[in-house]
Structure formats: C-alpha cells, structure tokens
Write a structure and sequence with these properties.
Layout lengths: L1 H15 L15 E8 L2 H11 L10 E17 L5 E16 L2 E14 L4 H29 L1
Helix pairs in contact: 2-3
Length: 150
C-alpha cells in the first residue's frame, strides 16, 4: 500500500511540474537549415547532409546558413605481438559555422569511440560504418539542440 501511494505521489509531481524530455523539441522542425559549403571527409559529410536535410523547413522565419568542416581519424591504440593492430579509436570532429541574420557563430563537436578489430575485414568495416553513423547522429542531435536553444 505504501509503494502505491509513493508511486502515485511521484507521478503527480512529475505530471504537474511541467516536465518534458530534453530532446522532445527536436521533432518540431521549426528551423530552416541551408548548407553552403562542406569540407572534410566525404563519408561523414554525406551522413551529416542527409541528417540535416530533415531540418529544411521553408516556412520558418530564421534561415541558418551553415558551413561544415569535418575530420575523421582512425587511430591504432594497441597491437599484438606480431605487430598487427587489435584496438582502434574512431574520432570524428565537426565544426559548424552558422550565419543567421549577419551573425556568425562556430559550433565544434567531437565524438570518439574505441573498438576492437573484427573477425574479418568485412565485419570490421560494417561495424565501423555503423559506429560512424551513430556518432554523426549524436553530433547532429547536439547541434540541433544548440540551434533551438538560441
């Protein structure tokens, strides 16, 4: 009986205090993003432009002109006794330069992930591509949330 009362009290507090999830505003798409230039790694840039194309709303008042500069690195962290790489660090750095109404601001994001060598080259490349896709999604979420705050 005490548990039910406790959970009911917590539920009432959460629903009446104006709680909303952090990323709930990402789906509103009330911004217009226009990509001007793209420099850096082709695969990362392709993923970024695909994910940013969802945020092109022609009805929005503000137009954000964006220049993208990306960098992708695959570093060797460890080698076995034969000298073959066993662990890697994947690192993506993206710099967004946003110009809105003659105001320019830079946003820099870095994501890194440590991975072990796969069984085959095909499996390793497939896993690496999925990690790159996930890291670019995280960068885009952080970037869009920063744009919507301002």
């Amino acid at each position: 009986m005490l548990k039910i009362l406790r959970y009911t009290f917590i539920l009432i507090l959460i629903t009446s205090c104006g709680y909303s999830p952090i990323y709930s505003n990402l789906n509103k798409k009330n911004i217009n993003i226009k990509i001007e230039t793209v420099n850096g790694n082709k695969n990362v840039n392709k993923l970024i432009t695909q994910k940013l194309s969802r945020y092109q709303n022609e009805n929005s008042e503000k137009v954000h002109n964006i220049k993208i500069d990306s960098n992708y690195e695959k570093l060797i962290l460890a080698k076995n006794t034969a000298g073959n790489a066993t662990n890697f660090r994947l690192k993506i750095k993206v710099k967004f330069t946003v110009t809105t109404n003659d105001n320019s601001k830079d946003y820099k994001f870095t994501e890194k992930f440590d991975m072990k060598k796969g069984g085959t080259i095909f499996e390793e490349e497939k896993y690496e591509n999925s990690i790159i896709n996930d890291m670019t999604s995280i960068i885009i979420q952080r970037f869009i949330s920063q744009l919507q705050v301002e």
